[in-house]
Design brief:
The chain contains 20 helices and 42 strands. Helix 11 runs parallel beside helix 13 and helix 15 runs parallel beside helix 17. With about 800 residues, it is α+β, with helices and mostly antiparallel strands. Among the domains are: about 280 residues, Distorted Sandwich (Beta-galactosidase, Chain A, domain 5); about 80 residues, Maltose phosphorylase, domain 3 (Sandwich), CATH 2.60.420.10. About 55% of the residues are buried. A 10-stranded antiparallel sheet has the order 1-2-9-10-11-12-19-16-15-14, covered by helices on one side.
């Protein structure tokens, strides 16, 4: 069954049944202010930091789910009946209550109809202002006059999200609520041990506030909940001022509606003082026109970001994801990293080094200047020895506060992602000047970006084990494989091989031949070690344990084959040969399912201390034989590099969220964004169930795999490569892409119905040699005709 549908024209996902299996959310906001909102209006917002700037409260992993949020209640003054515009929290019977939620790009709208009253609530965050706007419309479709009280409610968090959840003996005695009577604005402030001590406000901009509450316990009442607040039953708020306790922003506005009449209300929740910023913003958004103009800016913001790439293939679900939702998720993940979701409570805010290094790949074509700034932030979190801080907070680092990891918490892969990220930026932009920029290290000293890259390579070279493979250290990309005390990671070694190749290509291109030759020798040595110690006959081992036993081998006692060491054998460029093909055949044989490839097989059933935390999960969950979607994207790339277009596309579709819309009761997560993992085939009950949506590296790599390897349009230092690997049944496809300020309209035809191979390319009517379009041949607008063939 499904719970909604894609509205391609409006770029929305429309939820028609609010009883979704899990909360289906949207992210609103673009810079400092972020709002996460579910299809039932629950969720929370934060300012700059989800840990230290939490504005509103959300109860994680709670019963009932989806509490609290941003609620607008309507009460019929004649009948005393009341409901919420969103289905929850009141939860009227759905046979009498029509509920629709529209998640759009930068906004969410709730539409309802009950007792001949049509109402809507649209919530969005302006592009450049730290606030959220609630736009309410109420229409009387009956034949009689109606008198209503409109109540609003949201619950404030006490800024520090961790203290708010854990330290009630302290945190519940810190809030200072107030009310600006002259301007009718609720004022919220608090003093904490925090570098962020902002104030917040809440108001209605265009109607008189009849009553208010700022104390949650007064508004809701003892033994009540958000579904039946005492103030609404009472008919008005109590005027409570919370000094300590649980702060909230609750208001009452009265409206009368003649038959057919519609009323429009605007509420603001924002950062600032009620007597200063609150007063200013209330005046700014007093008119309908001013709110609509602000909303138009949000729409233009997303239009500008999504119009740098658009495709038209023979698969509508692929088009939906690549043109709208996959890109939207890439930008969301770039903005907020991994710390703020309905899964991550926000206590670990800031940037994951490896995460953010990868996240740039999905947005560099769209926002290159922002990517450049992010790269510099990342480089500042690298240490002079070459490794990187696994997780860091740029806001506190700018104040000189560095959380330098101890040696036992160094990851073997973090720093190497710089060798993927920086070349990707330069290939997209042609901006080689970044290599000369001097950036300080996190501990001491500074160096050019180019030397930062060299230092990353040197650290890995100096941290190899007895087989010549990279030490696994605290972990590699798979956080739960912990090969300490001399254990070696095949996958990190494959990433190192890829990083060396990227650096060699870059060094040669800029004339650093001596460096290129040096690292070619490194690469040759690494290839020799992989040839000798990682091939297991049908696949590549995952590594070596500290005891010397193989990990992910036919000889292993439990799990015998791992996904990453097969896909990266090919993706790294080390094994584009029969070994690579055989390894990928083993993926198909042992790991592939209808929902994607499991991460390892068979699942671990017993805990093994020298393997690590992966063995603590039940079979089919998280790291232990689940379908880790991030890892599945590299399978697509590997098959495309091998020229096996059917397999590449089959794998792409197997975990595509839009492909799960019809089986949403099984998939359970949002069918418009990628999840971290899908429960694997060895789980006894929930095979095919997705978990941890939105903030995952799957987004950027799924976009990269589809656009650069299936469609095959990828940047190079010299220009743009066209190298598709598609299902042979396709007649072709079209791509509109902006590259270095030039627009390309690319039309690919496949008359011979092959999967890979380009026979001819015409650029503005002139045939070129090969499949790389030199940037100097491009005009401001370009027509590119590509004919596939052998």
């Amino acid at each position: 069954m499904n719970f909604g549908y894609f509205d391609e024209q409006r770029k929305e996902y429309v939820i028609t049944n609010p009883k979704t299996p899990t909360s289906w959310v949207n992210y609103l906001g673009t810079s400092d202010y972020c709002l996460i909102i579910s299809n039932n209006a629950s969720g929370y917002s934060f300012y700059k930091s989800p840990k230290l700037g939490r504005v509103t409260r959300f109860r994680f992993n709670s019963i009932p789910m989806d509490r609290p949020g941003r609620y607008v209640y309507l009460k019929d003054e004649k009948t005393n009946d009341f409901w919420s515009i969103s289905w929850q929290p009141v939860g009227k019977p759905l046979d009498k209550f029509l509920s629709i939620c529209r998640h759009g790009l930068g906004y969410t709208t709730f539409e309802s109809k009950y007792n001949s009253i049509t109402s809507s609530l649209k919530i969005f965050v302006p592009v450049d202002k730290p606030l959220e706007i609630w736009e309410v419309k109420i229409k009387n479709d009956s034949n009689e006059k109606k008198e209503f009280s409109v109540f609003t409610y949201t619950e404030f968090c006490l800024w520090n999200s961790m203290l708010d959840m854990m330290d009630f003996q302290y945190i519940l005695y810190t809030c200072r609520m107030g009310y600006n009577k002259e301007d009718e604005i609720i004022d919220y402030s608090i003093k904490l041990w925090s570098p962020y001590e902002p104030k917040a406000f809440f108001t209605c901009t265009n109607k008189k506030i009849e009553s208010f509450d700022t104390d949650r316990d007064v508004f809701v009442g003892p033994y009540n909940s958000e579904s039946n607040p005492e103030a609404i039953k009472n008919g008005k708020c109590f005027g409570s001022i919370a000094i300590g306790g649980n702060p909230c922003a609750a208001t009452q506005v009265k409206i009368d509606l003649q038959p057919g009449q519609e009323e429009y209300l605007v509420f603001l929740l924002g950062i600032g003082n009620a007597y200063e910023e609150g007063r200013e913003y209330k005046k700014m958004f007093a008119s309908i026109d001013s709110v609509e103009k602000e909303f138009e800016k949000v729409q233009e913001y997303w239009k500008e970001r999504l119009n740098k790439f658009e495709c038209k293939t023979q698969d509508e679900k692929m088009n939906l994801m690549l043109n709208i939702w996959n890109q939207y998720q890439c930008h969301t993940t770039f903005n907020w990293s991994r710390s703020a979701s309905f899964i991550e409570a926000g206590g670990r805010d800031g940037l994951g080094f490896r995460d953010s290094s990868q996240d740039i790949l999905g947005v560099v074509h769209s926002i290159p200047q922002e990517v450049r700034r992010r790269l510099i932030e990342l480089l500042k979190a690298q240490l002079s020895e070459g490794y990187a801080m696994h997780h860091f907070q740029p806001l506190t680092m700018s104040q000189g506060k560095h959380n330098i990891p101890p040696r036992e918490r160094i990851y073997s892969d973090d720093h190497l992602w710089l060798l993927i990220a920086v070349p990707a930026y330069i290939k997209e932009t042609g901006d080689f000047s970044i290599l000369d920029e001097i950036v300080e290290y996190a501990d001491s000293g500074s160096a050019s970006v180019y030397d930062h890259l060299k230092q990353a390579l040197e650290f890995s070279w100096n941290n190899r084990g007895k087989h010549g493979l990279l030490l696994g250290l605290a972990a590699d990309w798979n956080d739960c494989i912990n090969l300490k005390d001399g254990g070696e990671s095949t996958w990190s070694t494959q990433l190192y091989y890829k990083a060396l190749s990227e650096f060699i290509e870059l060094a040669e291109y800029i004339g650093k031949t001596e460096d290129a030759e040096k690292y070619k020798a490194y690469r040759e040595e690494i290839k020799k070690a992989m040839d000798e110690y990682t091939w297991d006959g049908e696949w590549f081992v995952r590594g070596y344990l500290a005891s010397g036993k193989k990990l992910g081998s036919k000889e292993s006692e439990q799990s015998k084959i791992f996904l990453n060491s097969q896909s990266w054998a090919v993706f790294s460029g080390a094994f584009l040969d029969e070994k690579g093909k055989t390894a990928m055949d083993s993926v198909k044989k042992y790991l592939a399912t209808e929902h994607g490839c499991v991460k390892n097989w068979p699942a671990y059933v017993d805990y093994i201390i020298e393997v690590g935390a992966i063995t603590s999960f039940p079979p089919g969950l998280k790291e232990n034989a689940a379908i880790f979607c991030h890892a599945n994207t590299w399978v697509i790339i590997a098959e495309a590099l091998l020229g096996r277009g059917e397999y590449a596309f089959e794998y792409y579709m197997s975990f595509l969220p839009a492909n799960k819309n019809e089986i949403a009761e099984i998939y359970t997560a949002e069918p418009y964004v990628y999840s971290q993992f899908i429960t694997g085939k060895e789980h006894p009950y929930y095979f095919g169930r997705a978990r941890n949506p939105w903030l995952t590296g799957t987004a950027t790599w799924a976009f990269t795999a589809a656009t650069q390897y299936i469609l095959g349009v990828r940047p190079h230092y010299k220009g743009l490569i066209i190298d598709p690997c598609i299902p042979s049944c396709w007649d072709g496809f079209e791509v509109e892409r902006v590259f270095r300020g030039r627009k390309l309209s690319i039309k690919v035809s496949n008359p011979d119905h092959i999967s890979k191979g380009v026979k001819k390319i015409l650029v503005n009517g002139k045939e070129i040699v090969g499949n790389l379009i030199p940037v100097e041949l491009l005009d401001e607008k370009n027509v590119v005709e590509v004919v596939m063939g052998k």
